[in-house]
Specification:
This protein is mostly helical and 198 residues long. It is built from nine helices and no strands.
Amino acid sequence: MTALGIARRMDTDDALVLRVQQGEQAAFEELVARYRDRIYNYLRAMSGSDADAEDLTQEAFIRAFLNARSFRRDSSFHTWLYRIAYNGYVDAARKQKRRQAVSLDQPISEDEDGLPDVADPAAGPEEFVQQMELQDVLVTALQELPERLRSAVVLHDVHGYSYEEIATIVRCPVGTVRSRLFHARQRLRRRLSGYFRE
């Protein structure tokens, strides 16, 4: 690999965005490679559907590409991208609610839910089965949360975003993010109380 090639691989998000704004397709492909799985996993956890997450991920990157020139670096690129993904999810959820074709609270299938695995394959058979059962209950409990609470807990506890970054993504005050996380965790704790000792 040439020195130029190595330098380009190590480009910051801002440098890549600048190259995208100058019309360089390869720079956008690099951003997609960096963030596709994270955005997909976030949307998978939010929507509860592989197919919806795939569609919404594709839409998010299309919107990001089309609006790249409007990115002003007020926030980090990944925060801006998550905001696009979040807005796309909210728009799709509103349309789905209007159509009333499918419930937004349908359960998630076991695989590719975008959440960290609870089950440890190295555990004994009985413990592994219990851990798998807990994973299923956790995924179901997460889908039972209202969207605003689910988004806060997924962004913070699964994807590691700060309160400030989440506030930017979902466009609400930091105090509201704290409140949503508190209420989401309370509901999850109540739902999962039978699986943990106090």
